[in-house]
């Protein structure tokens, strides 16, 4: 099994916002990165945004020009899981669906080298259950990054029931190599951060739904009243309302307490396709004036 220092080749699956941010971090830390997505347009967008982000850092003097260009060169786009056969660590950041992730883990288990560590960037799906789809559960672990990964300072590491101490230690030092602070969670629904964050976001939806205040006042209240960089409704739009709803459902099903039951307004927004910033409309509208749609 690879130790942190030996993690030289990293496979990242999913070229969305999280996957490209993770690929950028690994490349900047000196790893050879294999960025996998079946959608070639998504890969092109990811490479463009990673290059722009690294060049912005170079322009600000946080990275030398040479290190920036070398990091970009270290990223290779690939389109099949077989291309990840030489990776020391694979981090998946695909759709938040347990069956889809399990199928991927079965495939990864077959094609990656026996020493490879398999990590999931899941927001809330059980690492133990993903690990049980493989014949190497001691080498499966959760590596939960926060959006935007290049900026957010945290990685939440989740130990599945069988994750070994060696794998935990290797992933912890690798995360520190990426410049992140690490916290460790046992494998219970929502782990640490989403277990606390999502009920707050849900409560903000209840406040809006029951007419306590406007979305702007709820967000301004939490921004200025508690020094959060974004209000909870703005943050929900940023994360994706579908992601928030799916995490709340995992919390509700897994912990069995009604306090996690998603607010009907959040459910209705997701049903209506108002998924947040990525769709141009969520609680707020983007590219236009703020939405004045009333619950
Ligand atoms: N990639 C790289 N850099 C980025 C970026 C991105 N996607 N977005 C912003 N930045 C950089 C900007 O270049 C800027 O850098 P500079 O200060 O050196 O010039 C800096 O971040 C600040 O950006 P802006 O001035 O454009 O905007 P803000 O000051 O409003 O900051 C924010 C944007 C960093 C996103 C800030 O609003 C924030 O921290 N929001 C909260 C984000 C958060 O809570 N994320 C976690 C969500 S939960 C999660 O991800 C878990 C999941 O499981 C649900």
Give an overview in words.
In the central section; belongs to the 3-hydroxyacyl-CoA dehydrogenase family. This is 3-hydroxybutyryl-CoA dehydrogenase. With 295 residues, this protein is of the alpha/beta class. It has helices at 17-28, 40-59, 65-73, 98-111, 127-131, 165-177, 193-209, 215-226, 232-239, 241-255, 264-271; strands at residues 9-13, 32-36, 75-78, 89-92, 117-120, 140-145, 154-159, 181-186. The chain has an 8-stranded mixed β-sheet, sandwiched between helices. A hairpin with an 8-residue loop joins strand 6 (140-145) and strand 7 (154-159). The model is unreliable at 289-295 (pLDDT under 50). The chain binds 3-hydroxybutanoyl-coenzyme A. 3-hydroxybutanoyl-coenzyme A binds next to helix 2 and helix 9.
Ligand types: 3-hydroxybutanoyl-coenzyme A
Radius of gyration: 19 Å
Instruction: Please tally the helical runs, counting DSSP H or I stretches of 4 or more residues.
Output: 11
CATH superfamily of the largest domain: NAD(P)-binding Rossmann-like Domain
Low-confidence stretches: 289-295
Secondary-structure-based class equals: alpha/beta
CATH class of the largest domain: Alpha Beta
* Helical residues, percent: 40-55%
**H/E series, N to C?**
EHEHHEEHEHEEHEHHHHH
Strand order of the largest sheet: 3-2-1-4-5-6-7-8
- Overall domain count: 2
Span of the ends, CA to CA: 53 Å
What's the total number of strands? Answer: 8
Binding site for CoA: 53, 60, 123
Pfam family, one: 3HCDH
Protein name: 3-hydroxybutyryl-CoA dehydrogenase
Binding site for NAD(+): 14-19, 37, 96, 101, 123, 147, 278
